[in-house]
Amino acid sequence: MSVEDALRSLGESGDPTQATRDPKGLVAYLELHIEQGPRLADAGRALGVVSDIVGIYHARVTLRGRADHAGATVMSARADALAGAAEIVLAVERIAREHPDGVGTVGEIAVRPGAKNVVPGECVFSLDVRAAREHEKLVQRVVAEVERIAHARALQATVDELARVPVTPLDRGIALLLRRAVKDVGVDAELLVSGAGHDAQNAQLSGVPTGMIFVRSSGGSHTPREFASLDDAALGARALAVALRELAA
């Protein structure tokens, strides 16, 4: 569904340009969110304050080789798209590990024609590449390696960029305010870089002074094991209330 159609379904005109507010009319944007990572839990702290949100690059890679019979096609005559994709997945992992604070993920993959007795002729997979420092350099290395591996394996590669969000430093004044608010509820908060994208990223990039409080969580994220205690969540809500009172004053 397009943005226009979604707006019309809500009774609006359907023009996204009319669904905006002047950022100058907003004093601040504050967000309370679980960390989705282990740093606060490992440090024994209930709350943290976000300093920056990582840059995010999403893309869809299509590798085209040649579908052949799995029994009749000798190994030296193959153009196996899945084998090329497997090498690229490992390259993404290696490059991300070599980059300071970089992460790289292939979370989706589809093989065509998808039969056990056919050498894969096409493979389509996702790329998720993130870093808080030198994000563009990391993206360039990954894309260059996709092209190098494809060429070495006689495959055709297409990289379609789906989304690119720059590294986003959050407002330093708001971060200081949030650290005071968190200390007011009894936590000496450290500054953390968010490895996940958040609504706060969009607000800051739109020119609204933005800040985030992280609540300690465990068990990973995007999984049923994800957990934050009621006490920690309540503490975060209290810190948010302290910050709102200071902003309102």
3D structure, described in words:
The protein is built from 7 helices and 12 strands. With 249 residues, the chain is α+β, with helices and mostly antiparallel strands. It folds into 2 domains: 21-54 and 167-248, Aminopeptidase (3-Layer(aba) Sandwich), CATH 3.40.630.10; 55-165, 2-Layer Sandwich (Alpha-Beta Plaits), CATH 3.30.70.360. The strands form 3 sheets. Strands 1, 2, 10, 11 and 12 form a 5-stranded mixed β-sheet that branches. The longest helix is centred in the last third of the chain and has 19 residues, at 230-248. It is elongated, with a radius of gyration of 23 Å. The two termini are 42 Å apart.
| Major beta sheet summary | 5 strands, mixed
Distance N terminus to C terminus?
42 Å
Number of helices: 7
CATH architecture of the largest domain: 3-Layer(aba) Sandwich
The class by helix and strand makeup works out as: alpha+beta
Rg is 23 Å
Global shape: elongated
Oligomer: single chain
The number of domains: 2
Helix content: 25-40%
CATH class of the largest domain: Alpha Beta
| Model regions low in confidence, pLDDT < 50 over at least 5 residues | none
- How many strand segments? 12
Can you say what the CATH homologous superfamily of the largest domain is? Zn peptidases
Mean pLDDT: 95
Q: H/E series, N to C?
A: HEHEEEHEEEEHEEHEHEH
Q: What is the CATH fold-level name of the largest domain?
A: Aminopeptidase
